[in-house]
Design goal:
single chain; alpha+beta; 2 domains; four-stranded antiparallel beta sheet; 1 helix
Length: 236
Amino acid sequence: MTGDGKAMRYLMGLAGRRGIRLLAACALAIGVGGATMGAGAAGAADCASDTFSPGCTMTGTATITGGSLGMAAPASQGWTTTLNGANQQLVDSADASFTVQDVTGSGSGWDVTATASQFAGVSPNVLSTTGTLVYNGSTTSETTGAQPGNACAPSTTCTVPTTTGLTFPVNVTTDGTTLYNLYNATPATGMGNIVIGSLSGGNPAAWWLNVPAGAHADTYTSVITLAIASGPGPAV
């Protein structure tokens, strides 16, 4: 073999070894690149307002604050009659509803109670502390027990009350201290704005007054105090 032939074979061998090394380097680079890409897709970093990234995660948080528990009731109850020698049962059918608002978000339920002071006119004129005031779900009968109806207030969404332990009619002793349960809602009910009584489309929440035949002609006044508290209480 001539010198030129030996030189040609040497150059070809050198090129072959370099090609093998080049292919190996390429394979290594591809393997490393694939591993890096896989690691990046496995878990995105937290988002940051000062960092650009191909993907990130953020947290969504909704904070809902509860409101209050309360009620709206008629400013007064009124009864008018003329003595006729007989005992009379009077009802205020015009003020036979009230509205409860529970927007606390607690789901604890609620309880509406009442106390009433003695009906008194010009001293010594008074009406008896027993048998005078009655609360019932009817404006046609004082003695036939009926529970006042309930419904969501107009244009609102609510969870209507499920009641417990209520008995009607409620004979209210007008001593100013004895507490009577008028309506309640068990836990997880009665949430939102709820109308109790005749404006709900159901039975009224009616107050009756018994006037004895021998009553003195006078104007008699009682203070009827309503209260609402969280959690359904036992009926009295």
